[in-house]
Amino acid sequence: MKRIFFGILLSAHFASEIFAAPVAPYPHSELIKEIDWHWETYTNAALGSDLWPVTWGPDDNLYTAWGDGGGFGGSDQDGRVAMGFARIEGFPEHWRGININGGKNAEHPASFTKKGKTAGLIFVHGILYAIVNLQDGVWPDVNHVVAWSTNSAVTWTMADWRFNKGSGQFQPAIFLNFGKDYTGAPARLAGYVYLYGVKRFAPTQKVGWIYLARVPVDRLIERAAYEFFQSVDAGGSPKWTADSDQAGAVFIDPNSDGIGSVVYAPALKRYLLASFHSGPGQLGVFDAPTPWGPWTTVCYYENFGRMGAAGEGLICEFPQKWMSADGLTLWSIFSCYGGSAKTGIQAHDRFNLIKTTLQLYPLK
Questions:
Q1: What's the angle, vertex CA 49, arms to CA 47 and CA 51, rounded to 5?
Q2: Considering only Cβ atoms within 10 Å of each terminal Cβ, which end of the chain, N or C, has fewer?
Q3: pTM higher than 0.90, yes or no?
C-alpha cells in the first residue's frame, strides 16, 4: 500500500494562528487547559477518499469507512466506490490500512458501489453496525438506515425500516464509542448503545442543535427499542422518551451544521466531542462528564491546520484504542473536503492522522 507522509513543524506564528480561538458556544473546560497538535507527526493516506469514522473491533483492530474513493492504496477513481470499509492494523506510529469491502485491491467485493455513506460505526459484542445515509434524496433530505455486519464488514444487512427524512425528523449521525468491542462503558450507561443526531426544519438551516438516542445493546435493529434524551431531573438523572418529537437537545452550537464524533476517555472520566462548526479550519473540541453534558470547550478554532473556512470539515475523532493510559496523549483521525482544505496542511479528501496531547489544569 502506498501512503503519503508529510511532516510539518509549527512556527510560532502558525501556532498562534491555530490557538487564537474565537467565541465558543460553551465556557472553557475546567479540566483541560489546552490541546496541542503535534504537526511534525502528521501523516495522510488514501487520497481521494473522505469521512473515515472509526470503531475498535474485538480483534483489537480499528475499523473504518470511507466515501467516494478507492480507500487505502486507491484514488478518487482507482477502486472508487460510494462507500467502502477497511481495517487499520497496528498503532499510530506504525499502522497499515487494508480495504475489506470495496476499494483498491479489496479483500471482498463492495456492498455499496453507487450510493451510501456513513459517519457512524460501532462494534458491539462482535457485530459491526453502521448508520447509513441512503443518498435517496437531495442532501440533507435523505433517509437513514441501520446496517450491520456479522463478519467484520465483509457483507452487510440493512434494517427493513428507516429513520425517515423530512422536517423535524431525527436523523442519526454518529455512535458514542467506548472501548474494544463496546467494553468499558460506565455502570450507569451499561446495557445501551448511544447515538447522536440532528433535526432539520428547513433545507438551508444550520443544524446547531444535537440530540441523543439510546437503544439496548441487543436490539439495535428494532425501531421500537429506540428512545430519546428529553431532559435531566432535579437529581441530575436523564429522562428518556419514545417520542422523538419530545427530545431535548444535548449540545448546541449555532455555528454548527452537524457533529463529528464522541468518545469516552476513561482515564479522564470525560466524554470528548469533536465537531467542525463549518469549514476545514473551523474545529471545536468539547468535554463533558456525561454523554448529555454539560459541555465545556477545549478548543474552538477558525484556522485549524491553516485551512480556514472555505470547504467542509467532515469528521474529527480520537480513537480510544490509541489513547495513552493517563488519557493525555491522543491520536486524531480527521477528514475535510474542498476549498481551503487544499491549502495549509493540504488535508483535502484523504485520511489524516496526527498526535495530540492534553494539558490539564493543576488539581485544586
A1: 130
A2: C
A3: yes
